[in-house]
Amino acid sequence: MKVKHNIKIVRQDGDIEYHDVEGQWNEEGSGGPSFKPLYELLNCKRLEFTCGMNLQDTKELTIFLDEEGLYKENNQINGYATAMQKRWCDATGRMQISPIVGDVAIDLGLTAESLAEVSIELELQDYERQSNTTQA
After folding, report:
1. Which of 125, 87, 126, 107 is nearest to 19 (CA)?
2. Does the model's pTM come out above 0.90?
């Protein structure tokens, strides 16, 4: 099922932007935002992802970054993304190897519209399962 993800872009200079990015969803909850728009938003050719935690709570989020970011001359440390990853590492017993540099995209989850569509789909699937069980 096609869905839209809320994406928070955190620029290395601290500027923040929000974008809706198309993606996929399936019953297992896997999928995610499409990479092509993320390449454009982050101005990169290869994506790497890591985990981070909100600074306000303990929600685990996926952070997308330029895989070649450490090799670019003008990239600076992205303090916001580095702090998110450090918080996640501390909570999960991992060690942060290096700071995150450059612009990042943070997947905040599905948009309200997509979340409603997924909820309806899950209810329909649950109803079909119950009907099939009753008939058997």
Report:
1. 107
2. no
On whether residue 90 sits in a domain, the answer given is: yes
Strand order in the sheet with 31-33: 31-33, 16-25, 2-10, 104-110, 60-66, 47-53
Domain that residue 38 falls in: 2-111
In a domain? residue 27:
yes
Instruction: Report pLDDT digits (tens) over 16-25.
Output: 999 999 998 8
Confidence of residue 127 (pLDDT cuts 50, 70, 90): low
In a domain, 117, yes or no: no
Query: What pLDDT sits at residue 91?
Result: 94
Residue at 19 is within a domain: yes
Domain total in the chain = 1
Six token digits for residue 60: 């685990």
- Token readout for 78 is 């992205």
